[in-house]
Amino acid sequence: MSDSNVYGRFGEALEKSLAEGCFVQLRLSGATKPDLPGKVRARLVELKAGRRLSFALSYPTRDETRNFPVPEGCAWGREMAGSGQYRNALLSTTRGDWQLSHTAKGAPRLVTHRPATSLAPALHHDQKSAGLLAASARDWLHGLGVTDAAGQVKPSMTDKHRQINRYLEILSHLARDCGWLPATADPADQRPAAARPETELVLADMGCGKGYLTFGAWQLFRRQMGLPFRIIGIERRPELVAATAALALRTRAEGLEFIAGTISSVSLPKADALIALHACDTATDEAIRRGIDLGAQLIVVAPCCHQEARPQLGRPEPLAPLLDHGLLAGRFAEWLTDGLRALHLEAAGYQTKMIEFIASEHTPKNLMIAAVRRRDPRPRPQVHEQIRRLKEFAGLQRQALDALIES
What we know:
The protein is an alpha/beta fold. Helix content is about 35%, strand content about 25%. The chain folds into 2 domains: about 5-115; about 130-405, Vaccinia Virus protein VP39 (Rossmann fold), CATH 3.40.50.
């Protein structure tokens, strides 16, 4: 397929998603010229003048917003994504995601994925300023050093603030998938009238570190939505547990607690949601096993390093020449490991999604695996056979989740 056809298909998908009402967002990254914004995010907003396509442009020293009537914004987005000015473009829709990237030689390639979300975001024009972090989050954001005393985000913490917002955006969609939030609720609103759960729900955040995202989950569910969540942050380093627990006490964060422990050893009464972000190597698999054992309705992991599969890789044809390159072999081992994790979750009765958590220009470890327990799980023997064949093809003798099949 010619370069123009690739860009044309991406532009057509953007135009069609806007026309059919399934557009979620457009993201551009990897600018090829220094005068371009490093990142671009486009979303639909509802203004007094009518519906607009709003572009958030992130420059090294400033952020800028441009609002266009939808037809003009679509044309501008097509030009930005289809002119080779950005190495990566992601079009998210409620029907599917379109990933535009470029090879080492600069040739464009287009890949489609299952949709990361089935719901379009709310069209509020003020979402950009704070995202899902309402003004009531100022106390703990300041306590964690994200904002100053006046509530302004510190320049050095801009990426962290965006990461928290992105996390809450993902978490709010997953909560809808689980039935914990009404499908029509806007998570940015304070205490919606229809709060679904009546009994206490437990969210366990494994390896929570300094607690940025743990406080974020508490902010979303308890403070903003008024839902009966008990948020437990688990961290093995006692000094961090003491610091986060003290901040929770100072900010009167009822329903939020921090305890010392590890993924495998911590004692939990139950868990409706288990989260483990950036757990190294097979610690991610431990978190998946723990979540399945606890019967969690929601399991979310963001894998970090992948060391188990790489030494076992064989030389399957026709991939053998590619795997001679260490970088490609490493990436193949990562995709293989995370693909097997998704299959094991599906075998255990979950529906899985692969989501870009952090923009790829910040870290290549930007994949999040989100799993929601299904009412109609896939047949286990079928998925087990897919796992077996995939391992056999790649030459893997063992994988940390094999015990799930053997049990």
